[in-house]
Amino acid sequence: MSANTRLRIVVGEDDLLMREGIQQILRSHESDFEVVGVGGSFDEVVDVVEREQPDVVVTDIRMPPTKTDEGIRIAARLRDAHPRVGVVLLSQYAGSSYAVRLFEGGSSGRAYLLKERIAHRVQLFGAIRDVADGGSVIDPQVVDDLVRGKELAANSKLGSLTSRELDVLAEMAQGKSNAAIAASLFLTKRGVEKHVNGIFSKLDLPEESVVSRRVVSTLLYLSERSAQ
Question: pTM for this structure?
């Protein structure tokens, strides 16, 4: 993404005041961002994305019709239909469950921020630029909740990983399958599986589904990168 290119943004938010506030913040930097459409429900956001083909969607998680997980479902839909569209999810909830679901399909081009970050424009703008470039952002409070919820040590356990395990984890953080990781790192698929199991063991992750443990590993890895 060129530094001189304005990013085209679609805003998804059912609360009128919040929606207007987000638009005003983005329009205060017209040289960088252009709001090309808004939506107040799942269907409205999907329709405007199909019509405008934006670079990034900035959306609330809970919107009509169910006000439960519309933002998560929008992000999942775009992963398949428009993989180059970045998504910044805004939530008033610090719980890690939504973040885990967001990153289940891969971390590239996805960000999870608490709504309170909107007041800190630099953080919001940075997240938008990062997902437009295929990067990932996780709100620090969400990571804290994740660490507490999984009862992991306060100090990082990534330091216990070997350099090769870190290489594999970095590939996992891009949403790659074991087969894709093997091709990228010139390893056998069985070798990748061995490294992945070693990562799970060293991070002391509970025996849950493989998908869940991969996502938790990815979240911890990305949180370490953002802190550097």
Answer: 0.71
